[in-house]
Amino acid sequence: MLSATVFLGMSGAIIAMAADPAATISQKGRNFTPAAVTVKKGDMVRFVNDDFYGHNVYSETEGASFDIGLQPPGEERDVVLEKLGIVDIRCRIHPRMRLKITVTE
Predict the structure, then answer these.
(1) Does the pLDDT at position 82 exceed 70?
(2) In CATH, what number is assigned to the domain containing residue 9?
């Protein structure tokens, strides 16, 4: 499986090879599972496309925006969140898909 990490910080996004995630989110049946998680600042969240079709996970939350692009079936992508608070996550292809990530100290 292909895996990449997106680090979000003051200098923008950096893609690197992945380590162990604090949370793993499955994308299947036009749903994120689980639909809500809590992680600590700087923790990595892994998005796994367990579906038969592509997804495009993104957030427009101020200070925590990202877009991992088209994610084919079977692929994993990682995001590190640095901003405290609630980050709303969606799929550009399936707008009803929603996930809430709470980032704590």
Answers:
(1) yes
(2) 2.60.40.420
